[in-house]
Design a protein that fits this description.
about 200 residues; alpha+beta; four-stranded antiparallel β-sheet; about 35% helix
């Protein structure tokens, strides 16, 4: 008899728990409905086109001694990008030529100042000054060929130069995207063209 009472109590407890689960209030999440516009988003891939791309190279064959920029760097017009180094003997010769031309120019100028009233000597010394000045300019131009400068403001797109390598004439060392108004070229799926309008804004990521 006692066993039946235990089963009865257990059954009653189970029934009571089931009743609580059925009758207990349920939590319902709700959101406020507001009126708005439906936005159609179109996602497409494309490429950014700069105003111009300049390929930078060397006009002489020489070893690359220093590189002052890297891919992705922003550069300014006239900035030193790469410095080249020729053979030690040739570089020394260019330096001596530059020094000698400068000395000749200075000496001739002093002589010209001291002989301004001596007729024919004045013309001869004037020619000597002109020759020394031309030699100085030529030596300086040869030295300047060993330094590569930025031709315009922009961003370095590619760098095909490494220190110790040889820069050859006609070979591109750097590619530069010129600073200015860029364009974006995107391929849009035909089914999405109907959603586009003239002067519609877009987000580029």
């Amino acid at each position: 008899m006692r066993r039946y009472w235990v089963l009865f109590i257990i059954t009653a407890l189970i029934g009571f728990l089931i009743w609580l689960l059925i009758t207990s209030p349920k939590r319902i999440e709700s959101v406020q409905v507001i009126q708005g516009s439906i936005a159609q988003t179109i996602v497409a891939t494309g490429k950014i086109i700069p105003p111009a791309i300049i390929d930078v190279g060397s006009i002489v064959n020489a070893n690359i001694a220093d590189i002052f920029i890297d891919k992705g760097d922003t550069i300014s017009k006239g900035q030193i990008l790469i410095r080249l180094s020729d053979h030690a003997l040739e570089a020394s010769y260019l330096k001596r030529t530059l020094d000698n031309a400068q000395a000749s120019f200075d000496t001739a100028q002093l002589q010209l100042s001291a002989n301004q009233d001596r007729g024919i000597n004045t013309r001869l010394l004037a020619n000597k000054v002109a020759q020394a000045k031309a030699g100085l300019a030529l030596a300086q131009a040869k030295l300047d060929q060993l330094t590569i400068y930025a031709p315009a403001n922009g961003i370095v797109l590619t760098r095909n130069a490494e220190i110790g390598a040889t820069a050859q004439t006609g070979k591109t060392l750097l590619s530069i995207a010129v600073q200015g108004v860029h364009k974006v070229e995107v391929a849009i799926d035909e089914k999405n063209i109907r959603y586009l309008k003239h002067n519609q804004s877009a987000t580029i990521v």
